[in-house]
Amino acid sequence: MAKKAPRRTAERILEVTLELFNRFGEPNVSTTLISAELGISPGNLYYHYPAKDELINSLFDRYERALSELLNASDGVRNVEDAWFFMHTLFELIWQYRFLYRDLNDLLSKNRRLETHFQWVLKNKTRAVKTLLDGMSRSGAMAIDSREVEATATSMVVLLTYWLSFEYVRDPRNALEPENAQSALMRGGQHVLGLLIPYLEVDQRSHLQALVTAYSTPVNSPP
After folding, report:
1. Which of 113, 88, 87 is nearest to 100 (CA)?
2. SS3 assignment for 89-156
3. Tens digit of pLDDT for each residue in 64-99?
4. Mapping DSSP to helix (H, G, I), strand (E, B) and coil, where does residue 39 land?
5. Are 86 and 74 in contact (CB under 8 A)?
6. For the ranges 160-164, 188-192, 217-221, which has the lowest average pLDDT?
7. Could you count the other beta carbons within 10 Å of the beta carbon of residue 28?
8. Mean confidence (pLDDT) of the chain
9. pTM summary value
């Protein structure tokens, strides 16, 4: 039993760190705050993670593994229904690790490992979106000129990457709080898939509009 204790402590440290990073933003969370929240000494924290960057990198590794698995599911997208599920599942994962996106530019400027690995993230998101577009085209759900695929995929990835930043700017005090998760994710998914509207077949376009109507949440202007 004693051998398992360090692993449990290390896991708990990551769980609490993720919660604090998501709540306050990574730049505003110190290792002192993390250890205080956990009720452990700073020395105990440093035993498992000697530097704050190691906490960030460990959380990013978790995100990267989950993202890689999810993006592979893009080859199963054949219609709007599939795309809707895929996109919202992707946004849910981004929300789970939203501190990465909330503080993305700051993190990349300070952490060389994230700087290089986020290049992989962008490339693989783009690859997955192109696979999604190809699958929907081959199934007849949409018709898009091959010359427009690159620009459309890039626009979708830009929205996926910076949507939460937009939400945060729109309402800094409330946008990234847990109670606002579903509305933020729904709006993001709607706008990403909205880029496909000019290319969708008529019935697929109607189905997308029906999904938007069914799941849409009224947007209240920030005070």
Report:
1. 113
2. HHHHHHHHCHHHHHCHHHHHHHCHHHHHHHHHHHHHHHHHHHHHHHHHHHCCCECCCHHHHHHHHHHH
3. 999 999 999 999 999 999 999 999 999 999 999 999
4. coil
5. yes
6. 217-221
7. 11
8. 90
9. 0.88
